[in-house]
Amino acid sequence: MCGIVAACARREVSEILLEGLRRLEYRGYDSAGMALIDNEQRLQLHKHQGKVARLEDAQAMNPILGCVGVAHTRWATHGPPSAVNAHPHLSGQRIALVHNGIIENHAALREELKSEGFEFVSATDTEVVVHLMHRELQGGLSLIDALHAVIPRLTGAFALAAVDTAHPEQVVAARIGSPLVIGVGIGENFLASDTLALRQVTDRFIYLEEGDSVLLSAGQLQVWDAERVPVERPVKRISTGIEAAELGDYEHFMLKEIYEQPRALAATFTRDGAGELDESAFGAEAMEIFDRTRAVQIVACGTSYHAGMVARYWLEELAGIPCQVEVASEFRYRKRVQHPDTLLVTVSQSGETADTLAALRHAAPGEFIASLVIANVDNSSLVRESDLAFLTRAGPEIGVASTKAFTTQLVAFLMLTVVLGRRRGMTPEKQQDLLQQLHSLPDLVTATLALDSQIEKVAEAFIQKHHALFLGRGIEYPIAMEGALKLKEISYIHAEAYPAGELKHGPLALVDADMPVVAVAPTDELLDKLKSNLEEVRSRGGELYVFADRNAGFTDEPGVHVLSMPHAPEALNPIIYTVALQLLAYHVALQKGTDVDKPRNLAKSVTVE
Ligand code: G6P
Prior knowledge:
- With 609 residues, the chain is an alpha/beta fold.
- It is built from 18 helices and 25 strands.
- It folds into three domains: 3-239, Aminohydrolase, N-terminal nucleophile (Ntn) domain (Glutamine Phosphoribosylpyrophosphate, subunit 1, domain 1, 4-Layer Sandwich); 249-442, Glucose-6-phosphate isomerase like protein, domain 1 (Rossmann fold), CATH 3.40.50; 450-595, Rossmann fold.
- 33% of the residues lie in helices and 23% in strands.
- The strands form four sheets. The chain has an eight-stranded antiparallel β-sheet, with helices on one face. A seven-stranded antiparallel β-sheet has the order 5-6-7-8-12-13-14.
- Strand 18, helix 11 and strand 19 form a beta-alpha-beta unit.
- Helix 3 packs across helix 4, helix 9 runs antiparallel to helix 16 (476-491) and helix 16 packs parallel to helix 18 (573-592).
- It starts with a strand and ends in a 17-residue tail after the last helix.
- The site of 6-O-phosphono-alpha-D-glucopyranose has 17 residues, from helix 9.
- 6-O-phosphono-alpha-D-glucopyranose binds next to helix 9.
- It is an enzyme of class 2 (transferase).
- It catalyses: D-fructose 6-phosphate + L-glutamine = D-glucosamine 6-phosphate + L-glutamate.
- GO terms for molecular function: carbohydrate derivative binding; glutamine-fructose-6-phosphate transaminase (isomerizing) activity.
């Protein structure tokens, strides 16, 4: 999704802005631009459709230089990807503005500004903001006062940053529902929508709070809260993560992140090396809140939603606690009847997903006893705004298709199952058993990764296909959903998941030799039922790709291709089968030649509704 980088320094900053944009590329975007105020106090601009590399080429051919500037990667919402719709947007050749998020009332504002003679060149919602700023500046306001005057006119969730040639040493910015951090340097200050963009210039960050605005110059920074009262926000030092975002020897971040799973999973359950399950990993007040919890409501989007779907099986079956799961974009707008004493659990790799955050923020007073987030990014909005937080230790995830974040979320949920289960009669032996199982997980994932070259071979069968079906039963149904999501995200093959028992109620009509059918088949109590469903596929000429426990009794035969998975304790199957399906999607995409890490139209962190 869109990314913002801005800089105020006493040195030339074009390369810092470009490097910041490169580091934001993983979020997904379709155009990029930057504007600098040069030493003659004129605005200089480059913007292009396509990759940041095009901006670099333009900069190499025709360098624009300055000590103050704003830069942006755009993920189109209003107006198609194009140079003219790319940010920064200008007004009167004096103001340049970049924007993340959506201005919902842009149409009315556009009419108002047009009637006053402002000319629009783009189809974006953003352009109204830069003209509104211009109008306030013409009225004699300072740059920050102009921003303060404009914000109340805007509805939506957004982050903004702007420069003005009449205030050539300043950058102003505001955070209204879309993340923004200040990077604090020595005699220079920076701004970005993600700390990753600035790790090359500083390790000290100020996380802006909701509604904050900021005035930056090289030597000064001033923050105002939503009421426009000047405030001090704490400076936090971040020491890790620069090297983790490097590709190393891997061809893609997705592959690197798939292979990082044994370490990421172990890091997530062995908190600080402790052998026992430490409940404080969920937050200081977790014990007291868990004592009162009688039901769980999980809310998330995308892959994180699938983690929640898996968790429902564990929480109800192993911990005996009622659990509901819903996608955040539906949950947030629905009138609900909540079980008393329900714990709201949000799940999010980024901690910034707009719908998930809105679900947390818009929960009715008293509707939940408390909120817990399972997130991968410390200091993210969901972490800061939830009562309890469990941080997965996946490390930075750059590939748009989520991999290690998902499996570490599952580990977090198994831990939650134990801590809630022990309050509802789960025996100490069962608790110990689950924790022991977790300790065997990294080795089982390593054994699954060893199937890589076999899965690569199987992937060849998919590259000419336009559709695929994924089947699972019970807890493997959400894993089939996650496998289908991975395949469609990065290979653009239309993939659907079904609980295998539903096959005969519709999707069976689609099955023929052109429809590969992937089955998730560990040994569990539903295995025989699944086998019958797969027979239904075979009888219609469907080609089966069965990821099966080596003891499940499947053998290769014409039309049936079996991938022999390691035998694992039942609770761990969702994790290891996911790893195999991640590899399948990766190899299909690789062989099709799609952009594995940055699939078209998608964004890593979806900060608009
Ligand atoms: C985007 C990403 C997905 C991710 C979803 C939820 O759609 O492309 O990979 O699962 O957002 O993101 P979150 O950060 O909340 O887990």
